[in-house]
Specification:
five-stranded parallel β-sheet; 8 strands; alpha/beta; 216 residues
Length: 216
């Protein structure tokens, strides 16, 4: 990762272009070329820098932790899993313009029960703190091992006393936003479709793992 100062300069330039209607892909290329950024830095800009109005609209949907008590939570399974997994592994995490935490890992690899086992405890700890009435997890069906990971994590949550159901779907993003509850994801598409949202992975990273994401 380049210096924070240089990344902040690149982020400022990208916000300028995005706020004037230029496309995200072409703007990231222009800024990336100007600052000679590598692939991880370009991914960081692409995932985390947003037009001001878009960022405000999305962040306005985010609930505070205390607002989740007694609510039904709809977890974007792999989105939550990967953010926490990479945080545990010491990979960079960024606090993005729209108020959510995102990882910038290029190659996430294949999910597995072993990897799910790494993130189960932080997820459970976060849920105990938030005290929802119930949890629904949805995993992308087209991703390998989705069924095994879904079954494993739902069983871990239930055995801890959390009212949890889990499933796989070919339209996970849409399904999560349609569930009568709070959509828990850092995925822009999910948040945009949802009425209310919460970044449970970011909450776990900060409040359970004690990791502070970087703001550029």
């Amino acid at each position: 990762m380049l210096t924070l100062e240089l990344m902040s300069q690149a982020a400022e330039d990208l916000r300028y272009l995005l706020n004037r209607g230029y496309s995200r892909a072409s703007s990231v290329k222009v800024v990336g070329d100007r600052f000679a950024l590598g692939k991880p830095e370009r991914i960081a800009l692409y995932r985390c820098i947003h037009p001001s109005e878009e960022a405000r609209r999305r962040s306005s949907k985010l609930l505070r932790p205390e607002q989740l008590k007694g609510r039904r939570l709809a977890l974007d399974g792999f989105n939550v899993m990967w953010t926490i997994y990479w945080a545990i592994g010491g990979h960079p995490l960024l606090l993005c313009d729209d108020g959510v935490v995102r990882d910038i890992t290029v190659d996430r690899g294949r999910p597995s029960i072993e990897k799910a086992g790494v993130v189960a405890a932080p997820i459970i700890s976060a849920l105990f703190t938030l005290s929802p009435s119930s949890v629904v997890m949805v995993f992308d069906e087209q991703i390998s091992n989705s069924g095994d990971v879904s079954s494993y994590l739902s069983e871990r949550l239930r055995s801890s006393g959390i009212d949890c159901t889990s499933s796989t779907s070919r339209t996970a993003d849409l399904d999560i936003s349609r569930i009568d509850g709070v959509a828990c994801s850092s995925d822009s598409i999910v948040i945009d479709k949802a009425k209310e949202a919460f970044d449970i992975a970011g909450f776990a990273v900060i409040n359970v793992l004690g990791t502070r994401p970087t703001k550029i």
